[in-house]
Amino acid sequence: MRILLAEDDQSQAESIKTWLEMDGYNVDWVERGDHAILAIEQHQYDCILLDRNMPKASGEEILKKLRSHHISTPVIFITAKDSIHDRVEGLDLGANDYLVKPFSLEELSARVRSQIRQQQVSVDSQIIFDHLRLDTQAKILYKDDQVVHLTGRIQAASATV
Fold first, then answer.
1. Which PROSITE patterns does this entry report, sorted A to Z (predicted)?
2. Where are the strands (E) in 72-158, listed by range?
3. Which runs of E-coded beta strand occur in the chain?
4. Which residue ranges make up each domain of the chain?
5. Could you tell me the fold of the domain covering 2-125?
6. Residue 44 in contact with residue 2, Cβ under 8 Å?
7. For residue range 7-61, what is the model confidence (pLDDT) as tens digits?
8. DSSP code of residue 159
């Protein structure tokens, strides 16, 4: 399992990275938002740990870009922004979970495991045929990883005899 850790505080990042590696994960660590975007474009991650306040691209910008490109990798915000408004905003932006600093590394591990389990259930809800992929849970059809917009009703073809 591969995790991207996007955190600009070196001491926190080293602690998190070491802890997750002891849990058996491969962890890629980046200190800047633009580097996080590059890593996401180049690698497939099972979970992304994303600080909201990072240089060169904020966590919010990164998450918006992910979701606009229909990348459903679980994202856990790890941040010092702790107000209810911040939490609600983060989740509404598309984060799967929200963890306020300082946090327990054991709790972080549990949340990562939870997100990966949920992602595995989501993968099982996909039907793939040739260039088509149907996400039965999200009810989205993809052709070559591009969303196919479907109407809500079936239109009968007219036949002439």
1. RESPONSE_REGULATORY
2. 75-79, 97-100, 126-129, 132-135, 140-143, 146-148
3. 2-6, 26-30, 47-50, 75-79, 97-100, 126-129, 132-135, 140-143, 146-148
4. 2-125
5. Rossmann fold (3.40.50)
6. yes
7. 999 999 999 999 999 999 999 999 999 999 999 999 999 999 999 999 999 999 9
8. -
